[in-house]
Structure formats: structure tokens, C-alpha cells
Write a structure and sequence with these properties.
By secondary structure, the chain is α/β, with parallel strands linked by helices. The protein has 17 helices and 16 strands. The longest helix has 18 residues. The chain binds N-(iminomethyl)-L-glutamic acid and fe (iii) ion. The site of N-(iminomethyl)-L-glutamic acid has 14 residues, from α5.
């Protein structure tokens, strides 16, 4: 077979689709051309050479194409579950009270420490598969339920293994400063020393973490303690990010901005000073409407101010057993619009281009452009806004991951339209 024949033989077309490329929805029908695992061309359908339609195979027609979705904030690897605390909260006990009584994050720490690597892998796999079936092609996974070198390392290894066994890119984050482990009760500064001087260097040496996160909150660590973690990360050349301004305003966002953090996450209590600080730092504002919803929060993040300041907004599931037991990223599109009043376009940018930016991978991920690796989703909807508008599973028609079609369905029952 000559090289030319081989190349054209491999050409696959998604013809007459509505294209959301990560930034905007194109207003004319487009054709996505894939060749040798890359996006060879993105062009208006009327300009497609007839030859290509005759030679190449039409892999899909009509519907919507988006970049593969990116869930840029999850705690997907954990032991046990917290359905009992869900019941407690329904009886009126608050998330903070449960944490103060040794439940909350610490109950998941106990369950995670008790689990083997294989058990953690087996429990995380179906959660990851649920995200994959919903069009997700990149997932960030944090540690933070181990809280000792051995157990944090175990969590991060499981995260890496998930990425090597399933068709999805995994980005790992070390969240040693998530909660104070029971053995350090009353000695938070000593634990932070352990994180900075022992855990973080060992994790970095094994290349188990792509970034470092902290929980800066009155039920977690102070801004000064978080800064020590950032300094240690910086010394090792690792990027940082923070769970900040979730339950109160500790000015964690200002700290994050000083360390050019990739993202500030939650940010319900972010104020004007915080916005001013992150405006020019390149830091992404990551919104987690699932945690807001689950905790029945009433303090909405300052969306209009973020918008005015031109700060990129990302959206993620925050998938975890406590504050957001949610494993469906398209549901977050709906919640970001309904609860936070984002536009559908902003919400879609939040799980594509801006989510990639929040992980520092925007040069390769989150946007569809000629020459890039072909990783995208073909949806059984007529317009991208529908993905945010209705809460409806099984709309993923095809999922293309690194040039391979890893999911191909007729969309199950309840088609919105026939192709
Ligand atoms: O992102 N805010 C801190 N950490 C998690 C909650 C983890 C848990 O409750 O287990 C979050 O909401
Ligand atoms: Fe989180």
C-alpha cells in the first residue's frame, strides 16, 4: 500500500456537524476531518472536497462536536462512602459540625487508609467509567484522604494506574494539606512540616503528582500554613492551586495569586480584593456547583465580578464522598447555569478550554484545532446549549480519544433526533 493510499484510507469525517471548538460555536455546518490520530482539518462542510467524501469514511453526520470534556477537580479515589453523613445532614447537622466531630473528611481518611491499592482501584474504576461515558477524556484526581506518605502515595499510584488502564488522561494532584490527620491532633504546624519536608519531596521524586493543592479554611489549614506548602512546592518546581473561600473568606485566593496558582477552587466567599489579586495572575476560577448544591449553600460565587474582570471560569464535579458525590460532568453544566447563572457557552468553556487552563494543559487539551490530537465527543443533540439545558444521560454518540473511537452508541432510547 502506498503512503498516500494509506493516509487517505485512514481519513475519517464527521460531516455537517455543529462545532463547539472550546471557545465558540461555529455558525455554519462544519466538518471535522481526522487522519492518523490527528485533526487534519476543521472546515465548513460546503468546502469539503468531494473526493474526501468519496474516499474517506463518514464516521458521523449531524449532531454536535465538542472537545473531549475535562473534569479539572475531583477526589475520585477514596475508600468507603458517607451515606450516613448524608442522613445526618438531613437531620440538621452541618458539614462543619460533622467534620468537627471527627467525621467528614476524616471518616474517609480511615476508610482510605484501610483499603489496599487494588481495592481503591476497583472502587474508583466505575466512578471513572461513569465520567468517561459522559464524554470526559481528562480527569484531575487529588490525593488527600491518606494524610501520610504511604497512604498518599497509594492514592496517587491508583490515580496513575486508572490513567494507564482506561482511555482517559489523568492529571494528579497532591493534597496532603487537606485535613489534619488524627495522629497530629493539636499539632497542625508539625503536620505541615511533615508535608513540606518529607511527603512532598518524596512524592515529587517519584513523579506521582503534577501539582499541589491545599484546603485553606477555618476547618482545615490557615493561610500561613498553606503558604508553607506552596513554598515547598515552588522549590520542587510544582504548580499550586487551592481550595479557597469555600465556607469563609480566609484570603486564600490572594495567597494563590502570589504563587501564580493554576486555579482557585470553590470561591463562594471570594471578595473584590481576591478578584483584584487573581485578575492578572493567570489563575483560573474553578466553580464547583455540585458541592454548592450538596451542601445547600446559599452564598453564590461572584460570577458577575469574575466575568467583568475577564477571569477564566472552569467548572468541575469535585467528585468526592462528602460534599459532592456526583460523577456526571454534564450535570455540572446545568447546575452552573441554573445555580450560578453562567451562560451555556461559559459553562461549556468551563469544561473544555478553561478546564485545560486550570490544569496547565491548554496547549494540548480543551480546544479543537487543526494539528491537535483527535480527542473529541460527538453528541446526539442539535445545539451545544442543549448539553447544559437538559439533564439527560446517554447523549454521547461517539467519544474519540487520541484518534480511537472508544465509545460508539446509537444514544439509547429517547433520541432527540435521528441521524
Ligand atoms: O472539595 N473542601 C474540601 N474538600 C472537599 C471535600 C472532601 C470531603 O468532604 O470529603 C471539597 O469539597
Ligand atoms: Fe475538592
Amino acid at each position: 500500500m502506498s503512503h498516500t493510499t494509506k493516509a487517505s484510507g485512514q481519513r475519517q469525517l464527521w460531516h455537517q456537524v455543529t462545532l463547539f471548538d472550546g471557545a465558540r460555536t461555529h455558525d455554519t455546518p462544519m466538518t471535522v476531518v481526522m487522519n492518523e490520530g490527528r485533526i487534519e482539518r476543521l472546515l465548513p462542510s460546503e468546502q469539503v472536497p468531494t473526493q474526501w467524501l468519496e474516499d474517506g469514511s463518514i464516521a458521523g453526520q449531524g449532531g454536535v462536536i465538542t472537545p473531549g470534556l475535562i473534569d479539572c477537580h475531583t477526589h475520585l479515589v477514596f475508600g468507603g462512602n458517607r451515606a450516613n453523613e448524608f442522613e445526618q445532614r438531613l437531620e440538621g447537622v452541618s458539614y462543619a459540625d460533622i467534620a468537627a466531630q471527627g467525621g467528614g473528611i476524616l471518616s474517609t481518611v480511615n476508610a482510605t487508609r484501610a483499603a489496599t491499592e487494588d481495592e481503591l482501584f476497583a472502587s474508583a474504576k466505575p466512578r471513572l467509567e461513569a465520567l468517561i461515558a459522559d464524554g470526559v477524556t481528562t480527569v484531575e484526581i487529588k490525593s488527600g484522604y491518606g494524610l501520610s506518605l504511604g497512604h498518599e502515595r497509594k492514592m496517587l499510584r491508583v490515580a496513575r494506574r486508572l490513567g494507564s488502564e482506561l482511555p482517559v488522561d489523568i492529571v494528579t494532584t497532591f493534597l496532603g494539606a487537606h485535613a489534619l490527620p488524627p495522629e497530629y491532633k493539636g499539632r497542625a504546624d508539625d503536620y505541615i512540616t511533615e508535608v513540606c519536608e518529607h511527603m512532598l519531596p518524596a512524592i515529587a521524586a517519584e513523579q506521582l503528582a503534577d501539582a499541589v493543592d491545599v484546603f485553606c479554611e477555618n476547618i482545615a489549614f490557615t493561610t500561613a500554613q498553606c503558604e508553607r506548602v506552596f513554598q515547598a512546592a515552588q522549590k520542587l518546581g510544582l504548580s499550586v492551586k487551592g481550595h479557597v473561600e469555600q465556607l469563609s473568606n480566609q484570603h486564600g485566593s490572594e495567597l494563590c495569586a502570589r504563587y501564580q496558582a493554576l486555579s482557585v477552587d470553590h470561591i463562594e466567599w471570594l471578595d473584590d480584593t481576591g478578584i483584584e489579586a487573581i485578575k492578572d495572575s493567570g489563575t483560573v476560577a474553578t466553580l464547583l456547583p455540585g458541592a454548592f448544591y450538596t451542601l445547600r449553600d446559599t452564598k453564590v460565587p461572584p460570577i458577575e465580578q469574575l466575568r467583568k474582570a475577564g477571569i477564566p471560569m472552569a467548572i468541575a464535579t469535585d467528585a468526592n464522598p462528602g460534599s459532592s458525590p456526583i460523577f456526571q460532568l454534564t450535570l455540572m453544566l446545568n447546575m452552573a447555569c441554573t445555580l450560578f447563572r453562567l451562560t451555556p457557552t461559559e459553562a461549556l468553556q468551563g469544561v473544555t478550554s478553561n478546564a485545560a487552563r486550570a490544569l496547565g494543559i491548554h496547549y494540548t487539551h480543551g480546544t479543537l484545532a487543526e494539528g491537535r490530537t483527535a480527542t473529541f465527543c460527538h453528541w446526539q443533540v442539535e445545539h451545544p446549549a442543549e448539553l447544559a439545558y437538559s439533564i439527560q444521560p446517554n447523549r454521547l454518540r461517539q467519544r474519540v480519544y487520541k484518534g480511537q473511537i472508544t465509545h460508539n452508541s446509537q444514544g439509547g432510547s429517547g433520541h432527540l433526533f435521528e441521524m
